Amino acid sequence: MQNVFDLRLFSNYSFKKCRREVKTSEEIVPEYVKKRVLILGVGNVLFGDDGFGPAVADYLLKNCKIPDDVYVMDVGIGAGDVLFNIALSQEKPEKIIVLDAVDVKRKPGEIFELSIDELPANKITDFSTHLFPSTNLLKELRDQMNIDIVILACQAERMPDAVSPGLSNSVKKALPKAAELALKLAEKAVSKRKTD
Question: What whole-number distance in Å separates Cα of residue 179 and Cα of residue 61?
Answer without folding.
Answer: 10
